[in-house]
Recover the amino acids of this structure.
């Protein structure tokens, strides 16, 4: 008998500080209308002193455990999607594990940029399907504003910080129906971080670490690629567009989200949108949208959810879930 990963509960955590588009107008040559029209973003949360990827992830994990009626002792696997770990090592997953006090269980980070949420979910799902792990915490946590170039208006208006968490449990009842993970490293020049440990940090503020993106080209590839993965996911499950109740997309840009919804012939009221409030929180975004959808009562048990994401690498992925 197949073992499915069933979602027991979700949680999220956003930094206290909110930065509006008006705040950004004071930093770079931009305006609220441009940001709203081109991206749908109105505000984003920015991590403050003492807030890191692991502290946000830990808080989200605790809320997801509470929503599941479990304690950390019930978990036997932690997978964290992140591109902005607190440290190179220990991994963010290990730091969160320490905070939860469930020492000894497997814990790892997955770096797939903005697709980190789907990648982390895909990895945890495979571990649960194997039968070797019973309950997993899947976390997406980021502090991308720590590597944003605040002089570059083409990128600094886009990103925000936050964390989300999902508790999965092995079950005979359908849950995660399939996950689909892809990457094409040939697009590294369109979206990247400028320095790393092995290539060497620079003698510049923040070690020279900045996000660089050819937004327009990323946009076009994202729209066509997400259209393809939606088709792949439906075909793999022998499903039609109309079988999907909710689209829960990566929140990078409202125009990319709308284009994917159109390809699915879905009305926007079947799409969970949080990009206006959160900006692009990379690996945290799909989980943040899922948590909001569940806690607001929009998504109900038995609904079919299509989660998808696209990000640096390029990486992209999807998950079809019976909630
Ligand atoms: N304020 C005002 N004007 C701006 C701003 C700004 N913040 N940023 C750019 N502009 C200007 C540009 O300079 C350009 O001016 P020009 O015509 O005089 O040259 C004009 O606006 C249009 O710029 P484009 O880059 O063509 O704008 P576009 O419509 O493509 O929107 C955006 C830019 C929002 C970045 C969009 O391309 C996008 O969302 N791309 C995809 C992002 C994404 O999905 N990334 C993947 C995940 S991220 C990750 O993995 C880390």
């Amino acid at each position: 008998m197949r073992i499915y990963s069933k979602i027991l509960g979700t949680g999220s955590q956003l930094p206290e500080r909110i930065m509006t588009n008006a705040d950004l107008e004071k930093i770079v040559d931009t305006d609220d209308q441009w940001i709203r029209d081109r991206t749908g973003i109105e505000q984003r949360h920015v991590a403050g002193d003492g807030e890191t990827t692991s502290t946000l992830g830990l808080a989200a994990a605790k809320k997801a455990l509470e929503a599941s009626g479990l304690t950390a002792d019930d978990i036997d696997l932690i997978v964290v999607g992140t591109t902005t770990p607190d440290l190179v090592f220990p991994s963010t997953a290990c730091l969160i594990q320490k905070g939860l006090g469930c020492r000894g269980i497997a814990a790892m980070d997955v770096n797939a940029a903005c697709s980190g949420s789907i990648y982390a979910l895909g990895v945890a799902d495979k571990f649960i399907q194997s039968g070797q792990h019973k309950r997993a915490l899947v976390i997406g946590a980021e502090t991308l504003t720590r590597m944003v170039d605040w002089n570059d208006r083409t990128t600094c208006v886009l990103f925000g910080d936050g964390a989300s968490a999902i508790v999965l449990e092995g079950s005979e009842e359908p849950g995660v129906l399939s996950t689909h993970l892809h990457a094409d490293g040939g697009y590294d020049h369109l979206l990247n971080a400028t320095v790393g440990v092995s290539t060497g940090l620079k003698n510049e503020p923040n070690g020279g670490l900045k996000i660089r993106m050819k937004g327009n080209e990323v946009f076009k590839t994202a729209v066509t690629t997400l259209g393809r993965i939606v088709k792949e996911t439906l075909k793999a499950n022998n499903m039609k567009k109309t079988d999907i109740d909710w689209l829960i997309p990566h929140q990078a840009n409202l125009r990319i989200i709308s284009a994917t919804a159109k390809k699915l012939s879905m009305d926007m009221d079947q799409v969970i949108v949080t990009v206006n409030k959160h900006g692009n929180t990379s690996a945290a975004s799909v989980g943040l949208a899922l948590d909001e959808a569940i806690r607001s009562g929009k998504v109900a048990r038995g609904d079919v959810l299509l989660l998808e994401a696209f990000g640096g690498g390029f990486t992209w992925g999807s998950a079809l879930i019976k909630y």
Summary: The chain has two domains: 4-173, 178-322. The chain has a mean pLDDT of 97. Residues 30, 34-35, 38-39, 113-114, 153-154, 157, 191, 215-216, 218-219, 222, 252-253, 256, 280, 282, 310-312 surround acetyl coenzyme *A (CB under 6 Å).
